[in-house]
């Protein structure tokens, strides 16, 4: 593969290599101690609360079993109860005396004191640094690894319970049982992510290696896959899934060679294997993710399959998807410094490095902040800083722009550009927002059908190669205008003087907002502006303002009524998935929302026609493209929509220009009765509705609403599913674990769960987060359908293009305040 780069020598790379080689010699001795001691009130408060709680529980236990008498003044004379055999030796209750209470409390003091002592130690000693220093080898390195994972996972367990409780309220769930599965999954996911993050940052490295900067990456005829693939449809570690019956080979015949001082962009649809490629280069694929690879993979001249990631962490930097899940410390400073602490670098050098890289990335104001207080975008910036602080010669970055606002995206792109073209680092980036890298990437590589192919130099060709072109706006605004014209009533949603406070932080101040039925409003702004807090406050109103839904103050509505009228899809939408199969999710939502059986599944099948069972496909196609519902007419219809498809020699070229995907074999199955097994398995995909919208003179659109067909602006189950008889999901989808679906499919599943009750208001936080253009178009269609049937839709997003494509108005939010709205003009 050809590659353009700036100059053959890259002296900056050699200088960086020399600097890295010098760092381990500057070890800390006594000066390491000051950084390990610092006072933090949080652990002490937590320990004090636990100690008091233990004493109270001990006293209650003694009151219930054995009594707390003792010959003193009787405070409460409870009857003494004896249990029947074989528990006759157990007594319940009995007199409660002052001396007995004191004795019970004193019996709990030793354990309470131990809890408090541990809290004191944790509040003055930075345990993560202690564990990191203890992981530099020796017999205790394995124990140190386990302690770091446990120490990092414990706060996440509390956060997981809090997040799942919020999600449970958003779904209308009750009872503790609904917490078990999601909390367990979140905790395991967190532990695995922390272990992977520590691995790539050199924790417990036994034999650190120095790579050859002149040849950072060399792959020759490499195939990459997972064990036990087959038809299991197992999700990849980067949360991308494969289609049913897929082989376990993710990438095949990969030839790749990268040089220092270059920035390479890798594009491709969700599930194509982009993150798997990065994991193969970092070593996580074969050493952590239980994957396999055939053929030589050499990173810095070393055999990647033989050398674990921790031994190459000195010259390989990694930024993974959802980086906050892998944070191993408590503060921004400690997280950036973690890899240097593991290597035993002097605290003086560590402090200077942390300050310098924070300045580069633009997060100096975050130093000293707790990681748990960061927004998703701020966490992404911290992850970038943590990866570059070691000055690697190879930097692997997985979707760095997914959670960033436009200013932060510009900073990160500029930083990666400088690292590659000034510092001589070999940078490989996986990103759906390919256009952001058009001016800085040296080459674009696209993954299609399991094959890595060069597209060209980004400066000469479109960086959108392998991805979809911008979405075309559909007539959602016209339909919304019709709805507002028909309604002529108060807005579906009114927010009056809404403020939100979290301790001393006030993320939302005096918010004023009005949204009509059928309208889509996009709220945009920088990271940390308060967008997520605003949506959550609307969905779960408390104090500090008014939220009026359909003319009724939401504060006076019951939990069930509020949930039926206002639905929120949070930024981490997977929190709303509680069950082990898609079918269980749908049926459970029908029960908790008191809906007819099959309602949620019908909405999902409508949002994702690919997942509908065969009998429902004809009806779905008839709704979208009536011509294709008639099998004998399909040739004429296809020839009208895409003339090139009628010409066999031109078919490949025509398909290459299509941008949204469903399996070609599935399209054939929908329009003919040819058995699916007789068709070749292809991963090139098209969406018939998008195809019609992009090739026919009149874009496919819902039937225009008229006063005769609609008398109310309230959505209905039938209108959301698109037909009187809701389509059914295919069997293979019903039995799949929700997390085995693709990212876009999971987002649509959560949307179906929240839309099934036909809410008057739909709130969606970062709807395109981590989605490729295909999944983005699926989510856009779901939002349009909700608006088309009368819901007031509010989205919080950093994706300006998405907002222009789907929204009627945009409102900027900054420092917790909403600015004047502006109409979207297309």
Automatic annotation (TrEMBL):
Residues 1-23, 694-727 are annotated as: Disordered. The keyword Protein biosynthesis does not apply. Its main location: membrane. It comes from the Bacteria. Residues 219-474, 493-826 form the ABC transporter domain. Residues 12-22, 706-719 have a biased composition (Low complexity). One of its GO terms (cellular component) is ATP-binding cassette (ABC) transporter complex. The chain crosses the membrane at residues 47-76, 96-125. InterPro entries: AAA+_ATPase, ABC/ECF_trnsptr_transmembrane, ABC_transporter-like_ATP-bd, ABC_transporter-like_CS, ABC_transpr_CbiO/EcfA_su, ATPase_AAA_core, ECF_ABC_transporter_ATP-bd, P-loop_NTPase. Pfam families: AAA_21, ABC_tran. Keywords: ATP-binding, Membrane, Nucleotide-binding, Transmembrane, Transmembrane helix, Transport. One of its GO terms (molecular function) is ATPase-coupled transmembrane transporter activity. Signal peptide: none annotated. It is a multi-pass membrane protein. It is found in: Membrane. Belongs to the ABC transporter superfamily. This is ATP-binding cassette domain-containing protein. It comes from Orlajensenia flava. The lineage of its organism: Bacteria, Bacillati, Actinomycetota, Actinomycetes, Micrococcales.
């Amino acid at each position: 593969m050809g590659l353009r780069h700036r100059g053959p020598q890259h002296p900056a790379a050699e200088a960086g290599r020399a600097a890295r080689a010098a760092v381990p010699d500057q070890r800390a001795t006594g000066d390491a101690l000051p950084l390990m001691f610092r006072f933090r009130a949080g652990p002490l408060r937590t320990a004090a609360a636990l100690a008091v709680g233990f004493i109270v529980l001990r006293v209650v236990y003694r009151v219930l079993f054995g009594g707390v008498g003792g010959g003193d003044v009787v405070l409460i004379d409870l009857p003494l109860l004896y249990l029947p055999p074989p528990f006759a030796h157990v007594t319940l209750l009995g007199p409660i005396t002052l001396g007995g209470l004191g004795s019970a409390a004193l019996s709990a003091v030793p354990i309470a004191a131990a809890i408090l002592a541990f809290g004191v130690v944790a509040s003055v000693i930075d345990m993560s640094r202690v564990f990191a220093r203890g992981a530099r080898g020796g017999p205790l390195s394995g124990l140190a690894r386990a302690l770091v994972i446990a120490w990092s996972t414990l706060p996440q367990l509390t956060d997981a319970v809090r997040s799942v409780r919020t999600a449970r309220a958003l779904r209308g769930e009750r009872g503790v049982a609904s917490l078990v599965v999601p909390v367990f999954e979140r905790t395991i996911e967190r532990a695995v992510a922390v272990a992977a993050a520590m691995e790539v940052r050199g924790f417990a490295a036994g034999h650190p290696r120095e790579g050859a900067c002149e040849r950072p990456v060399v792959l020759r005829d490499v195939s990459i896959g997972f064990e036990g693939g087959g038809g299991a449809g197992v999700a990849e570690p980067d949360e991308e899934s494969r289609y049913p019956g897929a082989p376990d080979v993710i990438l095949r015949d990969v030839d790749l060679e990268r040089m220092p001082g270059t920035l390479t962009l890798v594009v491709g649809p969700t599930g194509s294997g982009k993150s798997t490629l990065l994991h193969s280069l970092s070593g996580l694929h074969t050493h952590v993710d239980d994957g396999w690879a055939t053929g030589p993979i050499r990173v810095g001249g070393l055999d990647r399959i033989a050398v674990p990631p921790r031994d190459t962490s000195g010259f390989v930097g990694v930024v993974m998807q959802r980086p906050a899940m892998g944070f191993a410390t408590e503060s921004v400073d400690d997280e950036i410094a973690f890899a240097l602490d593991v290597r035993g670098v002097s605290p003086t050098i560590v402090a200077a490095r942390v300050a310098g890289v924070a300045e580069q990335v633009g997060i100096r104001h975050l130093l000293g902040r707790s990681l748990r207080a960061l927004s998703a975008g701020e966490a992404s910036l911290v992850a970038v800083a943590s990866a570059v602080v070691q000055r690697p010669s190879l930097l692997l970055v997985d979707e760095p722009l997914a959670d960033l606002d436009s200013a932060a995206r510009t900073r990160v792109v500029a930083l990666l550009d400088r690292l590659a073209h000034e510092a001589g680092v070999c940078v490989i980036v996986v990103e759906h927002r390919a256009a952001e890298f058009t001016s800085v990437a040296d080459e674009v590589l696209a993954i299609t059908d399991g094959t890595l192919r060069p597209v060209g130099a980004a400066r000469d060709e479109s960086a959108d190669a392998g991805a979809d072109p911008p979405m075309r706006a559909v007539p959602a605004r016209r339909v919304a205008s019709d709805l507002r014209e028909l309604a002529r009533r108060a807005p579906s949603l009114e927010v009056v003087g809404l403020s939100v406070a979290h301790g001393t932080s006030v993320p939302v101040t005096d918010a004023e907002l009005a949204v009509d039925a059928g309208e889509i409003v996009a709220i945009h702004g920088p990271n940390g502006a308060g967008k997520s807090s605003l949506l959550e406050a609307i969905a779960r109103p408390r104090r500090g303002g008014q939220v009026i839904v359909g003319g009724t103050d939401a504060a006076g509505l019951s939990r069930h009524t509020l949930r039926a009228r206002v639905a929120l899809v949070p930024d981490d939408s997977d929190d709303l998935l509680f069950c082990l199969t898609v079918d269980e999710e749908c049926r459970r939502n029908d029960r908790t929302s008191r809906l007819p059986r099959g309602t949620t599944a019908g909405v999902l099948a409508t949002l994702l026609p690919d997942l509908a069972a065969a009998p429902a496909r004809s009806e779905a196609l008839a709704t979208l493209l009536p011509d294709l519902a008639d099998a004998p007419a399909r040739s004429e219809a296809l020839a009208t929509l895409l003339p090139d498809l009628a010409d066999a020699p031109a078919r490949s070229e025509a398909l290459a220009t299509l941008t949204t995907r469903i399996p070609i074999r599935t399209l054939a199955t929908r329009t003919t009765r040819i058995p699916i097994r007789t068709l070749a398995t292809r991963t090139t995909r098209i969406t018939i509705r998008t195809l019609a919208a992009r090739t026919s003179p009149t874009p496919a659109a819902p039937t225009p609403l008229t006063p005769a067909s609609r008398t109310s602006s309230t959505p209905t189950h039938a209108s959301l599913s698109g037909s009187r008889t809701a389509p059914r999901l295919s069997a293979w989808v019903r039995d799949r674990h929700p997390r085995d679906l693709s990212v876009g499919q999971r987002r649509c599943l959560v949307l179906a769960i929240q839309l099934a009750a036909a809410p008057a208001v739909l709130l969606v936080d970062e709807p395109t987060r981590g989605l490729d253009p295909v999944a983005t178009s699926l989510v856009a269609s779901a939002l349009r359908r909700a608006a088309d049937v009368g819901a007031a839709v509010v989205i919080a997003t950093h994706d300006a293009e998405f907002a222009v494509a789907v929204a009627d108005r945009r409102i900027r939010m900054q420092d917790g305040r909403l600015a004047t709205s502006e109409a979207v003009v297309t």
